[in-house]
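Field notebook, page 361. I keep forgetting to write these up properly, so this time I am using the form the group agreed on. The chain and the ligand, pyridoxal-5'-phosphate, are recorded exactly as supplied. Prediction of the bound pose follows.
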Amino acid sequence: MKRTRNFNAGPAALPLEVLQRAQNEWLNIEDSGMSVMELSHRSAEFEKIHNRAIQSLKELMDIPENYEVLLLQGGASLQFSMIPMNLLPEGKRADYILTGSWSEKALKEAKKVGETAVVASSKDDKYTFIPKVEDIKLNEDAAYLHITSNNTIYGTQWKDFPQTGRVPLVADMSSDILSKKIDVSKFGIIYAGAQKNLGPSGITVVIIRKDLITDNDSIPSMLNYSIHAKNNSLYNTPPTLAIYLLSLVLEWAKEQGGVGKIAENNEEKAKVIYDAIDGSDGFYKGHAQPDSRSLMNITFTLPSEEAESQFLKEVKQAGFVGLNGHRSIGGCRASIYNAVPLSHCQELADFMKKFQEAFKA
Ligand code: PLP
């Protein structure tokens, strides 16, 4: 069977075991004689799958009782608008920390809804680092503080999170949810498009502290957290196939030994590639400052445009997919989400070493 070594940033590789299980169950899900896409979303069979996905995420992330887990549509990008629409009243300001293009986009949408402020940014340094938590000062009237926990394009990641006291901390975890243990109780909202560590595109997970869900009839129903929470995320027809695959990815994550074990694997995987960069005598240059390096997206450049395009051409020929940097910044990027096995990272590191030797010769 042909399977590529997939380093795509998103949609990302899914675990092979998940795809195989879906294939086995494809025509007869939950013994219904139907595929999951043919089940009514109001049927007992589908509800079981839907609730199992939510329950598994609660178990894996140790989500406290006072949080609601919502499965929504519209991607993480729709959350850029829903968050201020639901959490930013007149007379208050929303604080944002800029660590890359996705935080800029989140801020851009919030500005359309209400007052905002940027309380820290690494933009002037080409987003090579994460601001120090001790330097962050929130505004007195902050309705929430928004951060992007992992910057998919620049390859930086928060290691410690800002202490926000009574101000809810809102985190876009699209590209590192479920990659390491986090204390959910420190956050007001965690949201993530599923298509990196959770499953296929089409679902956005929103983990929201219950007291932040308030009734507000002026918000359109589909953009209203309260409506989705009251309807167990089944207000309208959900993406049933995507939710089913989410449930399988979460079961797979439990079988791997849970988030603690996944985090250990991710550390090991990232080290293999960062070691190849650091041991290259400057041939490969990491974009991120070492203490801000992402364990999910490893961004690097080569000494010249010629070397880079040669590298990208040859790495593809060698059977590695998705090594191009994001179109907005170029360079190279290896996305090593949970489903990417250690062996693929070792093979990439070996390729990098061999390419360097051949290029210099
Ligand atoms: N936030 C981050 C950190 C991302 O990496 C992405 C997509 O790559 C998005 C938001 C946008 O997600 P979506 O395409 O689900 O709207």
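OBSERVATIONS:
- The two ends are 36 Å apart (CA to CA).
- Residues 10, 75-77, 102, 148, 152, 172, 174-175, 193 surround pyridoxal-5'-phosphate (CB under 6 Å).
FOLLOW-UP: compare against the apo run.
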